[in-house]
Specification:
Length: 436
């Protein structure tokens, strides 16, 4: 459908009819409510094709003005015009600055597309793309502008062959205009080499990983072989080398927005079809995976120290989960959802015994929409009875961060175990949460 690359598919989708303004508002609220159902309280929006600033941000900005956002949003600006990328960013630099906004809606920087010549799309059914010779000169102009204006930036990067060329540009710019601690990052980095990780660290960068391989792992193996797939990406090596790492989903075009599928992938090392990708040395335990979604990912929205823990001075969104993430079988992690999600101290989603806390239902527009009957992504019955709740009431040890938060329903015994494990992170009790 998308040969030779995904831009064909994206541009085709963009040609579809637009909903009336009122229905755009309504559908956006429904989507946020669906994210809340999965425990999500914050997202990082890495931009996207055919999403031009400021025109295509009016819906979110109206929801923000009307206090109707139920998900915190840190947004990046994604260039829209091939060969005019520097002009895009120069214009935006006159309109908005990183950090502008508040804890609900704020500008996060540039990316994940900086120049179209650097787009190494990740369709593993197709050969690795050969990037244009103009890449270096075009990328240098944009990155120089961003560093001069102190804009954090992120860049889509799948293959080490591309990453090496990008790093050559970054190192050249850094010699002339020092990065000097500015947050920058690669997104994805499935085949990044140890040498490239060292170069990322030397420039003070980070790597944001996503669970694309849970859906494309078999395709990668068929093209490049199982040994090559064993470190796609080499998460453990990134952590050992001290590079900031955050985890997410790459939703909604490339992968699902469900963070529990991503956590299943990090922990099990398997695709959604059950193919084992990674040896134990490149898999994470459940706490490590959770940290990448919480404390780890706060770095990527320049909110480290503000999100990811229940401590004075940090945002304390939380969720009560349908199962104990730390103890259920790996395969069941994919089915976790929230029974209570709180953002800013107010319930934004509630079900089962917490149903009395649920916010008002959002009307469905138009009234014939399938949303009337749609239960949500991979909807699972939440088996939480009133009798079980009376035997061991839920403990709130989830705070809030970029994707869902981490609170599970636990017995006091399990809570004491997990609390002990986490005490070095948050004090007596607290939590990590998750990021897009």
């Amino acid at each position: 459908m998308a040969k030779p690359n995904a831009m064909i598919l994206y541009s085709t989708l963009a040609k579809g009819p637009k909903l009336p303004y009122e229905q755009q508002i309504n559908s956006t609220r429904h989507f946020m409510r669906e994210l809340n159902r999965l425990g999500i309280t914050s997202v990082i929006d890495a931009g996207g094709g055919f999403q031009n600033y400021p025109d295509d941000y009016q819906i979110i900005e109206e929801l923000h003005r009307n206090n109707q956002l139920t998900v915190r949003i840190a947004y990046n600006l994604f260039t829209q015009r091939p060969k005019q990328e520097r002009e895009d960013f120069a214009n935006w630099a006159k309109m908005v600055i990183p950090g502008q906004g508040d804890d609900l809606y704020r500008m996060n920087g540039a990316g994940e597309m900086l120049v179209f010549s650097a787009a190494d799309f990740e369709d593993f059914l197709e050969p690795r793309p050969e990037l244009a010779e103009s890449l270096e000169s075009e990328l240098e102009k944009v990155v120089s502008l961003l560093i001069q204006n102190r804009w954090p930036f992120r860049l889509h990067a799948t293959y080490d062959e591309s990453i090496s060329r990008f790093l050559n540009v970054f190192e050249k710019v850094n010699r002339e205009i020092p990065f000097d601690g500015l947050h920058w990052m690669f997104d994805h980095a499935e085949t990044i080499s140890d040498r490239s990780i060292e170069r990322v660290k030397a420039l003070g960068g980070g790597i944001a990983i996503q669970h694309r391989m849970v859906y494309q792992g078999e395709y990668f193996i068929n093209r490049y072989g199982k040994p090559a797939a064993e470190r796609t990406p080499p998460i453990r090596r990134m952590l050992e080398m001290g590079v900031p790492v955050g985890a997410g989903t790459d939703a909604t075009r490339v992968a699902s927005y469900n963070p529990w599928v991503a956590l299943y992938w990090l922990v099990s090392g398997k695709t959604i079809g059950g193919t084992s990708l990674y040896p134990e040395k490149n898999r994470l335990d459940r706490m490590e995976a959770l940290r990448l979604y919480t404390v780890g990912s706060s770095w990527f929205s320049s909110e480290d120290g503000k999100k990811g823990a229940i401590v004075p001075g940090q945002l304390a969104d939380l969720t009560v989960l349908s199962a104990d993430y730390f103890s259920i079988p790996e395969a069941q992690i994919k089915g976790i959802e929230s029974v209570l999600t709180i953002m800013g101290g107010k319930p934004v989603y509630a079900a089962n015994e917490f149903n009395h806390l649920a916010p008002p239902a959002i009307p469905v527009l138009p009234d014939w929409s399938p949303v009337v009957h749609y239960g949500g992504y991979a909807r699972q019955p939440v088996n939480v009875s009133a009798s079980s709740a009376s035997q061991h009431k839920p403990f709130h040890f989830g705070c809030c961060f970029h994707l869902p938060t981490c609170l599970a329903k636990s017995t006091p015994r399990n809570l004491n175990r997990v609390s002990s494990e986490l005490s070095h992170l948050w004090g007596t009790i607290g939590c990590d949460c998750f990021a897009f």
